[in-house]
Design a protein that fits this description.
The protein has 298 residues and is an alpha+beta fold. It is built from 10 helices and 7 strands. The longest helix has 40 residues. The chain is elongated.
């Protein structure tokens, strides 16, 4: 009887949680419907939209964070960052995009990232689950307890899905042209001397434990000889580290710290070596005695 009651209670709880998720999605959909009506009244002018995007990409502050890069096997993956995707959505116009936490339970959150073109009614959304833990190569999975850490972790995971949704809605030729404009801005329109920009780049990387030697080894020359093209590539790596797309071990050769043995470990190791040597000598002695006994018998 008690088991039946518990099963009924669990079933009711699951239904209530599912209803809460559907209610949240439904409320959000109703808000969007009002925006769709307004978008139909004031449609976008694609020429003006591209003009605004091009003007935004001419700003150095955006160009520096417009792209990311990270290794996948033997390939190098590059693309527009979430920062550029947000600017594209703002200036393309008549779009709604964001990340919504639908539910939080049992140490994980169910979230939805979306992008909606309110004029064409084309929508891309991704519903995903984020465990309240952060994984690192050195320490594995670490459970998150602080609400702020959980929020930042969800925002980081959601930003990647949001970027994918935005890029699925905005025409690809517009995205590619925006990335090209940002690369032109980094390569040609710079008021600061390249020496000063190299120095600033080195200082930025130190925040993530990347040294001058690591950068020089990756580029293949001394930092004083870095070119504009080298800086563009390093900017993309820096953005990947900042956005959590990769770790420094993915881009640079990191020397492992030498292992130091404690006094107890050293003594134990010496004792094991001594015993092994004694056993070897004993076996050799027995072998020699057996050979001598065999000769005497003959």
């Amino acid at each position: 009887m008690n088991n039946e009651f518990e099963l009924a209670l669990q079933k009711s709880s699951t239904q209530n949680q599912s209803t809460a998720v559907q209610t949240t999605i439904g409320r959000h959909t109703q808000d969007i419907q009002g925006l769709v009506f307004m978008a139909k009244q004031y449609p976008r002018n694609q020429f003006d939209s591209w003009k605004r995007i091009k003007e935004a990409c001419s700003r150095k502050s955006l160009a520096e964070v417009a792209s990311y890069t990270y290794p996948r096997g033997k390939e190098k993956i590059t693309g527009p960052s979430i920062r550029l995707a947000e600017v594209l959505a703002q200036n393309w116009g008549n779009m709604s995009t964001g990340v919504v936490e639908l539910e939080q339970k049992n140490g994980e959150s169910t979230c939805m990232a979306f992008a909606w073109d309110l004029e064409t009614n084309f929508r891309d959304e991704k519903i995903f689950t984020v465990k309240h833990e952060r994984w690192t190569k050195n320490y594995g999975a670490k459970k998150l307890e602080d609400p702020r850490d959980i929020y930042e972790h969800i925002a980081n995971m959601g930003a990647r899905r949001q970027r994918a949704c935005i890029l699925a809605v905005i025409p690809k030729d517009v995205v590619d042209s925006a990335v090209e404009e940002c690369d032109k801005t980094l390569a040609g329109i710079n008021s600061d001397p390249i020496v000063d920009r190299i120095k600033k780049m080195l200082e930025r990387f130190t925040t993530y434990g990347v040294t001058r030697e690591m950068l020089e080894k990756r580029v293949g020359c001394k930092s004083e000889a870095f070119t504009e093209k080298d800086l563009v590539g390093l900017f993309k790596i820096y953005n990947s580290l900042k956005d959590g797309m990769g770790a420094k071990e993915d881009y640079f050769e990191v020397e492992k710290p030498p292992t130091t043995e404690s006094k107890v470990e050293a003594e134990f190791k010496a004792e094991q070596e001594r015993k092994a040597k004694e056993e070897f000598d004993r076996q050799e002695s027995l072998k020699l005695d057996a050979e001598l006994a065999e000769k005497e018998g003959k």
